[in-house]
């Protein structure tokens, strides 16, 4: 894979320039399809690539008749993806493609590592060829089992390179390293966002992440299953707030910088279950079972860096949960 084209330097004023053609990798996932919807509503041409490893055709179905929307079923780790998009001009890249979900870490370990290595390399090289702006969605998982709370962007984390969660944690860390190399070596206008737990109405209830998992149990009348004691804490951010953050960092963030985006208030998993049952006016039982994989006790972002760009969380957790519950016709 070679290219002789060099990335042209961009003037500072270009940061404010709105994109005209956007490539979203992993665009059939929850976040990617939500981002596509937002960009299409702004009249922007959107190309989406996904191989449906964890994405869903249902997520992109509403866009298929939109003339601004173009979808390709491709694997970013394969040459066909690179060859296809080397011929399609675009000026902005949101790189989200990677299998997600803690339950998928072991069964999809190889796919996660390949997407984070060969896949990210392909996407970066295309961005360099086309001299585009680039945003990589990393994850709070790069902090591993943090010994510092809240986690700031300079914190290097507490991660095992061979632990059970390493295919996702180390995969994303390697992707970040690739992005940083392209910034330093080629001057690519790239930023990194570390995404913390995000939720919203269009999340599939078959998703095993905590909020849709609890909501599925509430909807079906089954016991809510909590792994471990339920004392582990997380923060949660409504999808609209995350999308505003991604667009803002792409527009105003600094080349080569990393930004945490997430909710800033921790809640225990047990308290989250109780809150959702209260909001849905249900009395499901709760079962506690041993976790199927090593778990992390705390996760909370330090968000002062992205706040300086003008971002803040606007939708409190209870309000966001109400919207999600009403969307699924439960309350």
From TrEMBL:
Pfam families: Epimerase (PF01370). Its cofactor is NAD(+). It is a single-pass type II membrane protein. GO terms for cellular component: cytoplasm. The chain crosses the membrane at residues 21-40. It comes from the Bacteria. Keywords: Decarboxylase, Glycoprotein, Golgi apparatus, Lyase, Membrane, NAD, Signal-anchor, Transmembrane, Transmembrane helix. Residues 22-262 form the NAD-dependent epimerase/dehydratase domain. It is found in: Golgi apparatus membrane; Golgi apparatus, Golgi stack membrane. PANTHER family: UDP-GLUCURONIC ACID DECARBOXYLASE 1, UDP-GLUCURONIC ACID DECARBOXYLASE-RELATED. This is NAD-dependent epimerase/dehydratase domain-containing protein. It comes from Candidatus Harrisonbacteria bacterium CG10_big_fil_rev_8_21_14_0_10_42_17.
């Amino acid at each position: 894979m070679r290219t002789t084209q060099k990335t042209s330097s961009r003037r500072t004023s270009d940061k404010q320039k709105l994109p005209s053609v956007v490539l979203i990798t992993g665009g059939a996932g929850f976040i990617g399809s939500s981002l596509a919807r937002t960009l299409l509503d702004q009249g922007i041409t959107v190309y989406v690539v996904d191989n449906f490893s964890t994405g869903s055709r249902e997520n992109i179905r509403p866009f298929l008749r939109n003339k601004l929307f173009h979808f390709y079923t491709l694997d970013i780790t394969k040459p066909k993806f690179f060859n296809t998009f080397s011929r399609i001009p675009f000026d902005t890249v949101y790189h989200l493609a990677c299998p997600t979900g803690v339950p998928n870490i072991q069964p999809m370990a190889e796919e996660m590592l390949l997407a984070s290595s060969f896949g990210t390399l392909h996407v970066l090289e295309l961005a360099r060829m086309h001299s585009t702006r680039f945003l990589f969605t990393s994850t709070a998982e790069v902090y591993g089992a943090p010994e510092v709370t809240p986690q700031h962007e300079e914190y290097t984390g507490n991660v095992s390179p061979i632990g059970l969660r390493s295919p996702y944690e180390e995969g994303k860390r390697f992707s970040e390293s690739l992005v940083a190399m392209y910034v330093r070596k080629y001057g690519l206008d790239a930023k990194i966002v570390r995404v913390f737990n995000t939720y919203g109405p269009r999340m599939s209830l078959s998703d095993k992440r905590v909020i849709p998992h609890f909501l599925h149990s509430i909807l079906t009348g089954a016991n809510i299953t909590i792994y471990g004691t339920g004392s582990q804490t997380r923060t949660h951010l409504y999808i609209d707030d995350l999308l505003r953050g991604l667009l803002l960092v792409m527009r105003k963030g600094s080349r080569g910088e990393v930004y945490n985006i997430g909710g800033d208030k921790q809640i225990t998993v047990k308290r989250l279950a109780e809150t959702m049952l209260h909001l849905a006016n249900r009395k499901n039982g709760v079962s506690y079972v041993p976790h199927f994989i090593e778990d992390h006790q705390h996760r909370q972002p330090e968000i002062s860096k992205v706040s300086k760009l003008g971002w803040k969380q606007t939708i409190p957790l209870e309000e966001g949960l109400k919207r999600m519950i009403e969307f699924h016709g439960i309350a």
